[in-house]
Specification:
heterodimer; A: about 250 residues; mainly alpha; 10 helices; about 80% helix; about 0% strand; B: about 325 residues; alpha/beta; Rossmann fold; Alpha-Beta Plaits; 2 domains; six-stranded mixed sheet; 11 helices
């Protein structure tokens, strides 16, 4: 276990030295909430305080982007040759993948800490259990998205440019066609159908449910939890499988 | 026990086959050099032995451990220096070595002194405060080799250990590799540099297009080339034609060519046994030998002899 933590810390500490990217993410969240969120919430009626809805949505969107970044980071490491080096170290494969996952989780926790704290402060009046459930949902969503990006990484091994284009396009579709910034019941039917295909719909609605938003605006939580669980398990499993095929090759005989 | 043993080892990348049923062995505590052009399968073999790649079929064992079924145990006894420096781009050389040494179980009490010593030996001490991404190609390569030197594993793999390194640096790296072997490590080096192979090898395996062409000591490989040794001979002879005839009949002579007045070029096998025969012949014929110059074949010639192609002119497969 000590080697796993050593691996996580060795790479992760560079994110803090200096923590420019982290502070920029927090700054972006603050600006977006203070300017755009504050203004748009004055225009939107019928949803209670839209600033709260918007803040949660933005945190979910950040979760997607951080998860996506983690997956992409892993692919870049494979290209740079860091992954073969890690694969040659005297660490069991399970421990290595655990270290990579923990690093992604630690990055997610650090980047979301301030935005999430601000969002919870705006919403207020929450229990420890509801906050813990919301945080767990965000992590689960983050792992699912990272797994999705790992699953797509086989494209990157052929063309990094095509991979970047596909993930950027996919990212914009997944965010726009979801309930991150607008409730499902307000969406036109064709948009609503598309929203059901976005994992962010399930993540955003489940987080909002735990944070006390009106359940009539949200998806069935059992359904949302099941979809998120399936997404994380399937994409992470697929990602690991594909990477093993691509990086280590496969013993076929 | 053999340090490395592969049987019918095959590795395919899609439709391309990098290793075609390779049979290969390395004895304990020897420096085995894999010599071959780019695309001959050297790096693929090394990565399979390091358990970074999995074979498509066949068997590979390191110190008796199967690389497919016991990969973690294999990794615990080996260290690898990759062909390209593998980096944590935003870390400094001492941090990278400290991390590597810690993960590989180098005792804490010796770690810092070893890091300092290796950095100084490999002339990286002045670059110790640079980030990895700011190191030159040669410095990055030295750092890659330093990982293995600090680890001092029972089985060390070095893929082109001195490529991109200047001549002085090459010599330093080679000395350290030999010292590692003297301490009891088994070493497998892949290279396409003839000088590196000649300097380091106890034995050489010539790889070409994923197969083991030949394996032997450098001396034996050179001796296997009939007429590979060239003897430039300058004599003071009354009857040059008679001497030429007699030399051409000597055991080991492949061809004699006259290169000037009283000068010959003899293409012979095993010059070290041919030259004494030649001098006694000259003595019997009362011919004074003015000078003898022996040129032995290089490993380039060995590769050419066994594959029919020059080492540097071989097209790449991968």
């Amino acid at each position: 276990m000590s080697n796993v933590l050593r691996l996580v810390w060795f790479d992760f500490k560079q994110e803090l030295n200096p923590p420019v990217w982290i502070i920029m993410q927090w700054f972006t969240f603050g600006m977006q909430l203070a300017v755009y969120g504050a203004l748009i919430s004055r225009l939107v009626t019928g949803l209670g305080d839209y600033l709260q809805f918007y803040a949660v949505g933005f945190v979910v969107m950040m979760t997607f982007e951080i998860g996506s970044h983690t997956g992409r980071h892993f692919v870049e490491h494979a290209h740079e040759g860091r992954l073969p080096y890690l694969l040659s170290l005297p660490i069991p494969r399970r421990a290595l993948f655990l270290a990579i996952t923990l690093q992604g989780g630690a990055e997610l926790a650090l980047l979301l800490s301030v935005p999430l704290f601000v969002t919870l402060a705006i919403i207020g009046n929450l229990t420890v259990i509801s906050v813990a459930a919301a945080v767990a949902t965000l992590f689960w969503l983050g792992f699912g998205v990272a797994g999705l990006m790992l699953g797509l990484s086989f494209i990157a091994f052929r063309s990094a440019d095509v991979y970047a284009a596909i993930t950027a396009a996919l990212g914009s579709l997944i965010i726009r066609f979801s309930t991150v910034f607008y409730p499902l019941i307000f969406l036109p039917p064709q948009y609503a159908s598309a929203a059901f295909l976005s994992p962010l719909t399930y993540g955003a609605d489940l987080v909002r449910l735990f944070l006390g938003f009106d359940p009539s605006l949200l998806l069935n939580p059992t359904y949302a939890a099941a979809v998120l669980a399936a997404l994380a398990v399937c994409t992470l499993g697929l990602g690991v499988l594909l990477l093993q095929r691509l990086v280590e090759g496969v013993k076929s005989g | 026990m053999l340090a490395v043993e592969t049987k019918n080892l095959v590795k395919q990348y899609g439709k391309a086959t990098a290793l075609k049923g390779l049979d290969f062995t390395v004895d304990e505590k020897e420096i085995m050099v894999l010599l071959g052009p780019n695309g001959s399968g050297k790096t693929t073999l090394l990565l399979i032995l390091a358990t970074v790649l999995k074979p498509s079929s066949g068997m590979a064992k390191v110190m008796g451990l199967d690389v497919t079924t016991q990969p973690t145990r294999v990794r615990q006894i080996l260290g690898i220096s990759f062909q390209d420096a593998r980096g944590f781009w935003r870390h400094k050389p001492p941090e990278i070595l400290r991390f590597h040494a810690t993960i590989c179980g180098v005792p804490k009490s010796r770690r810092e002194s070893m890091i300092e010593q290796i950095l100084k030996d490999l002339e990286l001490w002045d670059a110790r405060n640079k980030l990895f991404m700011h190191l030159s190609g040669g410095q990055g390569k030295r750092l890659e080799v330093a990982k293995v030197l600090i680890q001092r594993p029972p089985f060390a793999i070095l893929d082109e250990p001195s490529s991109q390194v200047d001549l002085r640096g090459k010599r330093i790296i080679w000395e350290h590799i030999r010292k590692l072997r003297e301490e009891g490590s088994t070493i497998l080096v892949a290279t396409n540099e003839v000088r590196e192979a000649e300097y380091l090898a106890d034995r050489v395996t010539v790889l070409d297009q994923g197969t083991n062409v030949v394996c032997d000591t450098v001396r034996s490989l050179k001796d296997k080339i009939a007429g590979g040794d060239i003897v430039e001979l300058h004599v003071d002879a009354q009857d040059k034609t008679d001497l030429e005839k007699a030399l051409s009949k000597l055991d080991g002579t492949v061809k004699i060519a006259s290169t000037g007045q009283n000068q010959f070029r003899a293409y012979v096998s095993m010059a070290e046994s041919w030259v004494p025969k030649m001098t006694s012949l000259c003595y019997k014929k009362n011919v004074r030998v003015v000078s003898v110059r022996v040129t032995e074949p290089s490993l380039d010639d060995v590769f050419l002899h066994f594959t029919g192609r020059a080492l540097e002119a071989t097209p790449t497969v991968e």
